[in-house]
TrEMBL record:
It is an enzyme of class 3 (hydrolase). This is protein-serine/threonine phosphatase. Its cofactor is Mn(2+). It comes from Halobacillus karajensis. It catalyses: O-phospho-L-seryl-[protein] + H2O = L-seryl-[protein] + phosphate; O-phospho-L-threonyl-[protein] + H2O = L-threonyl-[protein] + phosphate. The gene is stp. Residues 2-242 form the PPM-type phosphatase domain. The keyword Amino-acid biosynthesis does not apply. The lineage of its organism: Bacteria, Bacillati, Bacillota, Bacilli, Bacillales.
Amino acid sequence: MIGYYQTDQGKVRVHNEDAGGVFHNDAGQTLAIVADGMGGHQAGDVASQMTTSHLHTKWQEVEKIETPDDAEKWIKETVLAANNEIKTYANEHEECAGMGTTVVVALCTEQFATIGHIGDSRCYFANAYGFNAITEDHSLVNELVRSGQITEEQAEHHPRKNVLLKAIGTEYDLTADVKTLEFEEDDRLLLCTDGLTNKVTDEELRELQNHQGDWADFTQKMVDLANERGGEDNITLAVVHHCQLPSDEKEGAE
Protein backbone atom coordinates (compact mmCIF):
# COMPACT_ATOMS: atom_id res chain seq x y z
CA MET A 1 0.00 0.00 0.00
CA ILE A 2 1.41 3.38 -1.04
CA GLY A 3 0.66 6.62 0.75
CA TYR A 4 1.74 10.10 -0.27
CA TYR A 5 1.23 13.43 1.51
CA GLN A 6 1.84 16.98 0.31
CA THR A 7 1.10 20.41 1.76
CA ASP A 8 1.66 23.87 0.31
CA GLN A 9 1.33 27.32 1.88
CA GLY A 10 -0.38 28.73 -1.20
CA LYS A 11 0.15 32.17 -2.70
CA VAL A 12 -1.47 34.44 -0.10
CA ARG A 13 -1.30 33.06 3.46
CA VAL A 14 1.74 34.07 5.52
CA HIS A 15 1.96 30.64 7.15
CA ASN A 16 0.58 27.13 6.75
CA GLU A 17 -2.17 26.10 9.18
CA ASP A 18 -2.71 22.69 7.56
CA ALA A 19 -1.15 19.49 8.89
CA GLY A 20 -1.31 15.76 8.33
CA GLY A 21 0.67 12.79 7.13
CA VAL A 22 0.60 9.17 5.98
CA PHE A 23 1.72 6.57 8.51
CA HIS A 24 2.12 2.77 8.36
CA ASN A 25 1.99 0.28 11.22
CA ASP A 26 3.95 -2.97 11.50
CA ALA A 27 1.06 -4.91 9.93
CA GLY A 28 1.34 -2.82 6.74
CA GLN A 29 -1.88 -0.93 7.44
CA THR A 30 -2.04 2.77 6.64
CA LEU A 31 -3.39 5.83 8.43
CA ALA A 32 -3.77 9.00 6.35
CA ILE A 33 -4.61 12.32 8.04
CA VAL A 34 -5.43 15.78 6.68
CA ALA A 35 -6.30 18.68 9.02
CA ASP A 36 -7.09 22.32 8.21
CA GLY A 37 -6.52 24.61 11.20
CA MET A 38 -8.32 27.87 11.85
CA GLY A 39 -8.99 30.59 14.39
CA GLY A 40 -7.26 31.98 17.40
CA HIS A 41 -4.24 34.27 17.19
CA GLN A 42 -2.54 32.27 14.44
CA ALA A 43 -3.29 29.16 16.50
CA GLY A 44 -4.91 27.17 13.70
CA ASP A 45 -1.59 25.49 13.09
CA VAL A 46 -1.49 24.49 16.77
CA ALA A 47 -4.89 22.76 16.49
CA SER A 48 -4.08 20.93 13.26
CA GLN A 49 -0.65 19.84 14.47
CA MET A 50 -2.02 18.68 17.82
CA THR A 51 -4.73 16.65 16.08
CA THR A 52 -2.25 15.03 13.71
CA SER A 53 0.21 14.31 16.52
CA HIS A 54 -2.48 12.77 18.73
CA LEU A 55 -3.73 10.46 15.98
CA HIS A 56 -0.21 9.51 14.90
CA THR A 57 0.84 8.71 18.48
CA LYS A 58 -2.21 6.50 19.03
CA TRP A 59 -1.64 4.79 15.66
CA GLN A 60 1.88 3.82 16.73
CA GLU A 61 0.28 1.83 19.55
CA VAL A 62 -1.90 -0.21 17.16
CA GLU A 63 -0.53 -3.63 16.25
CA LYS A 64 -3.28 -4.51 13.77
CA ILE A 65 -6.89 -3.55 13.07
CA GLU A 66 -8.86 -6.71 12.36
CA THR A 67 -12.44 -5.62 11.57
CA PRO A 68 -14.41 -2.60 10.31
CA ASP A 69 -16.05 -2.35 13.74
CA ASP A 70 -12.61 -2.09 15.34
CA ALA A 71 -11.57 0.57 12.83
CA GLU A 72 -14.70 2.66 13.31
CA LYS A 73 -14.40 2.41 17.10
CA TRP A 74 -10.72 3.42 16.98
CA ILE A 75 -11.39 6.47 14.81
CA LYS A 76 -14.36 7.66 16.86
CA GLU A 77 -12.54 7.27 20.17
CA THR A 78 -9.25 8.75 18.97
CA VAL A 79 -10.80 11.75 17.23
CA LEU A 80 -13.02 12.39 20.27
CA ALA A 81 -9.99 12.31 22.58
CA ALA A 82 -8.08 14.67 20.28
CA ASN A 83 -11.05 17.03 20.18
CA ASN A 84 -11.36 17.20 23.95
CA GLU A 85 -7.60 17.63 24.39
CA ILE A 86 -7.57 20.59 21.99
CA LYS A 87 -10.66 22.20 23.53
CA THR A 88 -9.05 22.00 26.98
CA TYR A 89 -5.76 23.38 25.65
CA ALA A 90 -7.57 26.33 24.04
CA ASN A 91 -9.43 27.03 27.29
CA GLU A 92 -6.15 27.07 29.24
CA HIS A 93 -4.10 29.15 26.77
CA GLU A 94 -5.52 32.58 26.00
CA GLU A 95 -3.48 32.95 22.82
CA CYS A 96 -5.23 29.85 21.45
CA ALA A 97 -8.79 30.88 22.30
CA GLY A 98 -11.12 30.11 19.42
CA MET A 99 -8.78 27.80 17.58
CA GLY A 100 -10.04 24.67 15.86
CA THR A 101 -9.38 22.38 12.94
CA THR A 102 -11.09 20.13 10.46
CA VAL A 103 -9.89 16.56 10.20
CA VAL A 104 -10.38 13.74 7.73
CA VAL A 105 -8.82 10.34 8.47
CA ALA A 106 -8.55 7.14 6.44
CA LEU A 107 -7.63 3.88 8.15
CA CYS A 108 -6.73 1.47 5.36
CA THR A 109 -6.26 -2.30 5.52
CA GLU A 110 -5.93 -4.91 2.79
CA GLN A 111 -9.70 -5.58 2.94
CA PHE A 112 -11.36 -2.28 3.86
CA ALA A 113 -10.89 1.44 4.42
CA THR A 114 -12.65 3.31 7.22
CA ILE A 115 -13.08 7.07 6.83
CA GLY A 116 -13.82 9.54 9.62
CA HIS A 117 -14.21 13.31 9.41
CA ILE A 118 -15.25 16.50 11.15
CA GLY A 119 -15.49 19.73 9.15
CA ASP A 120 -15.18 20.33 5.42
CA SER A 121 -11.94 18.57 4.54
CA ARG A 122 -12.95 15.76 2.20
CA CYS A 123 -12.26 12.20 1.17
CA TYR A 124 -12.76 10.95 -2.40
CA PHE A 125 -12.76 7.31 -3.46
CA ALA A 126 -11.80 6.01 -6.91
CA ASN A 127 -11.95 2.49 -8.30
CA ALA A 128 -12.66 0.76 -11.60
CA TYR A 129 -16.33 1.75 -11.35
CA GLY A 130 -16.10 5.46 -10.66
CA PHE A 131 -14.98 8.44 -8.61
CA ASN A 132 -17.03 9.84 -5.73
CA ALA A 133 -16.85 12.09 -2.69
CA ILE A 134 -17.55 9.91 0.33
CA THR A 135 -17.72 12.62 3.00
CA GLU A 136 -20.39 15.29 3.52
CA ASP A 137 -19.10 18.73 4.50
CA HIS A 138 -20.12 19.90 7.97
CA SER A 139 -20.73 23.39 6.61
CA LEU A 140 -23.54 25.90 6.50
CA VAL A 141 -23.75 25.97 2.71
CA ASN A 142 -23.85 22.18 2.47
CA GLU A 143 -26.78 22.16 4.91
CA LEU A 144 -28.52 24.80 2.76
CA VAL A 145 -27.95 22.64 -0.34
CA ARG A 146 -29.17 19.49 1.45
CA SER A 147 -32.35 21.25 2.57
CA GLY A 148 -33.00 22.64 -0.92
CA GLN A 149 -32.62 26.30 0.06
CA ILE A 150 -29.80 26.93 -2.42
CA THR A 151 -28.33 25.08 -5.40
CA GLU A 152 -24.84 23.61 -5.62
CA GLU A 153 -23.97 26.38 -8.07
CA GLN A 154 -25.12 29.05 -5.59
CA ALA A 155 -23.12 27.36 -2.85
CA GLU A 156 -19.91 27.87 -4.83
CA HIS A 157 -20.17 31.65 -4.41
CA HIS A 158 -22.11 31.92 -1.17
CA PRO A 159 -20.78 34.69 1.15
CA ARG A 160 -20.80 32.29 4.12
CA LYS A 161 -19.18 29.42 2.28
CA ASN A 162 -16.46 29.01 4.90
CA VAL A 163 -18.79 28.75 7.92
CA LEU A 164 -18.44 25.33 9.57
CA LEU A 165 -21.09 23.62 11.68
CA LYS A 166 -18.56 21.26 13.29
CA ALA A 167 -14.82 21.57 13.89
CA ILE A 168 -12.34 19.86 16.19
CA GLY A 169 -11.72 21.85 19.39
CA THR A 170 -14.73 24.15 19.23
CA GLU A 171 -16.83 22.24 21.77
CA TYR A 172 -16.47 19.13 23.90
CA ASP A 173 -17.61 15.64 22.92
CA LEU A 174 -17.78 16.02 19.13
CA THR A 175 -18.04 12.70 17.30
CA ALA A 176 -16.63 12.04 13.84
CA ASP A 177 -18.86 10.77 11.05
CA VAL A 178 -17.46 7.39 9.98
CA LYS A 179 -18.08 4.93 7.18
CA THR A 180 -16.32 1.83 5.88
CA LEU A 181 -15.73 0.80 2.26
CA GLU A 182 -14.35 -2.31 0.64
CA PHE A 183 -10.76 -1.52 -0.33
CA GLU A 184 -9.36 -3.69 -3.12
CA GLU A 185 -6.31 -3.87 -5.37
CA ASP A 186 -5.78 -0.59 -7.30
CA ASP A 187 -8.45 1.35 -5.35
CA ARG A 188 -7.42 4.90 -4.42
CA LEU A 189 -8.37 7.44 -1.76
CA LEU A 190 -7.76 11.20 -1.84
CA LEU A 191 -7.98 13.27 1.35
CA CYS A 192 -7.78 17.05 0.96
CA THR A 193 -8.51 20.47 2.45
CA ASP A 194 -10.80 23.09 0.95
CA GLY A 195 -7.72 24.96 -0.26
CA LEU A 196 -7.78 22.33 -3.00
CA THR A 197 -11.50 21.72 -3.51
CA ASN A 198 -12.34 25.44 -3.68
CA LYS A 199 -10.03 25.75 -6.69
CA VAL A 200 -10.00 22.36 -8.44
CA THR A 201 -13.18 20.77 -9.75
CA ASP A 202 -14.34 17.24 -9.02
CA GLU A 203 -13.91 16.51 -12.72
CA GLU A 204 -10.25 17.49 -12.49
CA LEU A 205 -9.80 15.50 -9.27
CA ARG A 206 -11.21 12.50 -11.16
CA GLU A 207 -7.69 12.05 -12.57
CA LEU A 208 -7.13 10.13 -9.32
CA GLN A 209 -9.04 7.24 -10.88
CA ASN A 210 -6.66 6.57 -13.78
CA HIS A 211 -3.37 8.08 -12.68
CA GLN A 212 -0.32 5.92 -13.37
CA GLY A 213 3.18 6.52 -12.08
CA ASP A 214 4.50 8.64 -9.25
CA TRP A 215 1.88 10.07 -6.89
CA ALA A 216 4.16 13.06 -6.29
CA ASP A 217 3.38 14.10 -9.89
CA PHE A 218 -0.37 13.92 -9.27
CA THR A 219 -0.31 15.84 -5.99
CA GLN A 220 2.02 18.52 -7.42
CA LYS A 221 -0.26 18.97 -10.44
CA MET A 222 -3.27 19.51 -8.15
CA VAL A 223 -1.33 21.98 -5.97
CA ASP A 224 -0.18 23.86 -9.06
CA LEU A 225 -3.76 24.12 -10.35
CA ALA A 226 -4.97 25.57 -7.05
CA ASN A 227 -2.13 28.08 -6.97
CA GLU A 228 -2.63 29.10 -10.60
CA ARG A 229 -6.23 29.98 -9.71
CA GLY A 230 -5.26 32.27 -6.83
CA GLY A 231 -3.91 30.02 -4.09
CA GLU A 232 -5.60 32.10 -1.41
CA ASP A 233 -5.57 29.21 1.07
CA ASN A 234 -3.17 26.51 2.21
CA ILE A 235 -3.42 23.39 0.03
CA THR A 236 -3.03 19.90 1.48
CA LEU A 237 -3.73 16.43 0.14
CA ALA A 238 -2.93 12.81 0.85
CA VAL A 239 -3.32 9.80 -1.44
CA VAL A 240 -3.57 6.14 -0.44
CA HIS A 241 -3.21 3.62 -3.27
CA HIS A 242 -4.01 -0.05 -2.62
CA CYS A 243 -1.14 -1.71 -4.44
CA GLN A 244 1.93 -3.78 -3.75
CA LEU A 245 4.59 -1.61 -2.14
CA PRO A 246 8.02 -1.97 -3.78
CA SER A 247 10.65 -3.19 -1.34
CA ASP A 248 12.59 0.08 -1.55
CA GLU A 249 9.53 2.33 -1.27
CA LYS A 250 9.29 4.37 1.91
CA GLU A 251 6.20 5.87 3.50
CA GLY A 252 5.05 9.34 2.50
CA ALA A 253 6.59 12.26 4.28
CA GLU A 254 4.93 13.48 7.44
